[in-house]
Amino acid sequence: MKDTADTEKNTIMIAGDSQSLPASLTDILGDEYEILTATSGQDAVDKAKEFLPDLILLESDMPGMDGYEATEILKNSETACEIPIILITERNNDDSERKGLSSGAADFIVKPFDPVIVRFRIENQIRVQNQLRFIKMLSTIDQLTSMPNRRSFDARLDLEWNRAKRDMTQCSILLVDVDHFKIYNDTYGHLNGDAALKGTAGIIKDALKRPGDYAARWGGEEFIILLPATDMEGALGIAEKIRASVEELVISILGYLDTKLTVSIGVNTQIPAQGSTIEKFIDEADKALYTAKRTGRNKVCRFQSKKKRRSADRITSEVG
Predict the structure, then answer these.
(1) DSSP 3-state helix, strand, coil percentages of the chain (rounded to 5)?
(2) Is the dihedral angle over the CA atoms 48, 131, 135, 175 positive or is it negative?
């Protein structure tokens, strides 16, 4: 999957029951695109769902599942429904066009085709697809910090939560709050407040080393971090690293005034089980964050259920 900032080539899948169609279209398209081929309607459906090309060129008349049926199936697919499809047909009439458009095709190419027209039609679809993808990307990115936003995080958390539930693995979450940020913002101004948030975001990004770790701006001066397959000890270690790094961060104002900030962090770890919810998972991290703020700020606190706290108190009493 690509956006307009991606330097990789867009991928086009060409589906037809003869070798001549992919060959002739590949000659027309040249080296500008990555080409993926399919030899039947069913093959096109399977490969489209697996590889998610940027555009599909689909021959309408194929034995078995024809191009119209394949188009309809793909447009009703959860994973491939947004891929534009250009139907290639030998019939240039209203009935075939109506049938193709009703099945979800974005455009038509009529054989025998003009190479210049083919290129224009393909370029138009690719341009629109890239623009839509770029707009979608912007809707999931926080513009100030360039981190994923809350909407993007919700989608990622849902994915990882279900994976952890299936595999019965631990999942950890960190809620990070910049201490007394309103006072800082009011004292030094919004531009310097923005610089402080960017600095904090940079520290959080640098602390995450694994590809699966995911951090986002939760809102205002709060950040949230997802650590899949991470136990409490590992999550506390990352949280403490972030806290200490923010404490050491120096934010220079106008080149002569150095300022500093701290953060409070709430940590929660859980193996998703029957009856547990994402909302409760986040709420418990929020309770741990509240404890960190209530007990002095600039600290990391973990969530513990009342049952675990009572057990810990009992053990402490027995040892004493």
Answers:
(1) 50, 20, 30
(2) positive
Single out the residue of 9, 23, 19, 24 nearest to residue 40, CA to CA. 19
221 is catalytic: yes
Tell me the pLDDT tens digit for each residue of 80-98: 999 999 998 876 666 777 7
CATH classification number, 11-138, choose in 3.40.190.10, 3.40.50.720, 3.90.1150.10, 3.40.50.2300: 3.40.50.2300
Residue type, 93: N
**CB 140 within 8 Å of CB 13:** no
Buried residues in 182-218 as b, exposed as e (16+ CB within 10 A): eebbeebeeebbebbbebbbebbeebbeeeebbbbbb
User: Looking at 221, 222, 248, 284, which residue is catalytic?
Assistant: 221
Return the amino acid letter for 281.
F
CA distance 50 to 73: 14
Beta bridge partners of 36: 13
Would you kindly state where each structural domain of the chain is located, as residue ranges?
A: 11-138, 150-319
Three-state DSSP at 296 gives coil
What CATH number is given for 150-319 in this structure? 3.30.70.270
User: Token pair of 256, please?
Assistant: 């002569």
The predicted-structure confidence for 9-55, as pLDDT tens digits, reads as follows 899 999 987 777 878 888 888 788 999 999 999 999 999 999 999 99
Q: Which tokens is 225 given?
A: 């971090």
Task: Compute the distance between CA of residue 53 and CA of residue 59 in angstroms, rounded to an integer.
Answer: 16
Cross-strand bridge partners of residue 264: 177
Report if pTM > 0.85. Answer: no
Q: How far apart are CA 113 and CA 227, in angstroms?
A: 52
